[in-house]
Predict the 3D structure of the following.
Amino acid sequence: MITHYSKYLKVLLIGYLNNLLIKFRIFKSERFARYIFSSSHIKQTSIRPKYAAFLPNYNEKSKKFETSVFRINSLTESAIWEIGDYVENSRNKKAANKISMKGYARFLYKNVIKYQLYITQETSSHPLHANILGWPTEREAQKELAILLAKTAILKMKKTQI
């Protein structure tokens, strides 16, 4: 049980240290991850996620459309997956139906700002958490931008354990 918690403490510590080093500044070349929990967001014959993986949700509190992402620029591949496990566990604590992470879409900040969107940190749930903001309110316009973002992202699938 201690090992289980120490794994998540390690991920949180890495996140806080990373935040101290980068001081909220986001560079054009910075990598982000959008964790994917739905099989319908994955193209089975491609290294790209489906556009639906990037569609924003409306946040009642902030009154904005947001897509949740994580900063992964200085992280190892195993640390990226550990954050995904953390997100999965956090979501499952709140949900009646348990979900499992399928993978993540890796993309660069320069591809977000290219489409007049932006990313801002929102670290209340995790030190590396952020949101893609600037989405239009019309669903069709959101879809068009999500399609463009998905075309720039690389899909990394979680290895299933036997």
Notes: The longest helix spans residues 2-22. Residues 2-157 form one domain.
